[in-house]
Design goal:
4 helices
Amino acid sequence: GIQEVAETMVIYGVDAPTDEARELSGILTSQSEHLVAAVRCLEGFKGIETPLREVHELEHRADGLSRAAIAGLFRPARDPLEVIKWMDIYKELEETIDAAEDTGEIIERIVAKSS
């Protein structure tokens, strides 16, 4: 997903990310860090709940942010090509953030089956 976002930005000739894209990327970075922490907790399962909860909370935060970012594309009126570019980029970022949450849910199922 990260590669797809980067490639889309290159294909569309995006010179700089928006503040919202930066924030969504930061959320994805945080999710990744929490997933690494959760994987490190798999042996023994101690402390695994906190990083997995953070992954979910970050995804919920991203939902609101991506909706607001897309809405902002239409206020004030913008160049339609810019709207299309950023809608695609925001969608890809959101899908990648959702995939990180899905990974957290897979880890939760592993823990549940092992308990």
